[in-house]
Design brief:
Blueprint lengths: L1 H23 L8 H7 L2 E12 L7 E12 L5 E6 L15 E8 L11 E2 L7 E3 L25 H7 L26 H35 L1
Parallel strand pairs: 3-5
Antiparallel strand pairs: 1-2, 1-4, 2-3, 4-5, 4-6
């Protein structure tokens, strides 16, 4: 009888110890750089400028990044994405002011926030990196974080990322404005605008001159 009670107590203790571990664990398989890039829709380095907590329990956090180098996806200056607020759900805890190499994807099963398409998580391969704005290079230091992307920043790592693009234009959710034109570089619409404006001035001057001549001729006739 005593042995049965001890066995039950041991089983209960094991369950009590095991449940929190299972509830709070997020297990990620190690990623190679090439696999992390292939599975992502957007890959960029950027600094977290804003963190928004949704007002309903269970809703994800919304992170806004000032991107400095874009390796995959639309080269926008500002990129917004979501991640689960709970690390047990594999949410990635991006820190405001921190710079990261970010892997994000458009996923129908990810945390949904209206107007935000991209999401990322602890198993996506995100890596905290040193401050700066330049492309990652072999030998760059990786800061300690919640990486699932294994290995140092070496030549293979950088080659897998590919050649980055600098952000083309500011955008709130990863879309880019139309191409900018330098001052003085007149497009076809501007040229036709000047032509139409000049023609209007010529017609107005001609009409005023003709009216003046008619008035002069009428005055001479009355004499």
């Amino acid at each position: 009888m005593v042995s049965r009670m001890l066995a039950l107590l041991a089983l209960a203790a094991a369950l009590l110890v095991g449940l929190p571990t299972a509830a709070h664990a997020c297990s990620c398989a190690d990623l190679t750089p090439a696999l992390a890039v292939r599975e992502a829709d957007a890959v960029f380095t950027g600094t977290v400028t804003n963190v928004r907590e949704e007002d309903r329990p269970g809703r994800p956090r919304v992170y806004t990044f000032q991107a400095d180098q874009v390796y995959k996806g639309t080269p926008a200056a500002r990129i917004t994405l979501t991640s689960n607020a709970d690390s047990a759900s594999c949410g990635y805890p991006f820190q405001r002011g921190g710079r990261y190499l970010v892997f994000a994807a458009v996923s129908s099963t990810g945390p949904a926030v209206e107007g935000v398409e991209l999401s990322s998580g602890m198993c996506s391969g995100n890596v905290p990196v040193d401050r700066g704005t330049g492309p990652l290079r072999p030998g760059d230091e990786r800061k300690a974080g919640h990486e699932s992307l294994a290995g140092p920043v070496d030549a293979e790592f950088v080659q897998a990322l590919g050649t980055p693009q600098p952000p083309a234009a500011a955008a709130e959710t990863g879309t880019v404005e139309g191409p900018l034109r330098a001052d003085g570089d007149a497009g076809a619409g501007d040229v036709w605008g000047w032509v139409a404006g000049g023609a209007g001035v010529v017609l107005l001057v001609g009409a005023l001159t003709a009216a003046a001549l008619r008035r002069r001729g009428s005055a001479a006739g009355r004499r």
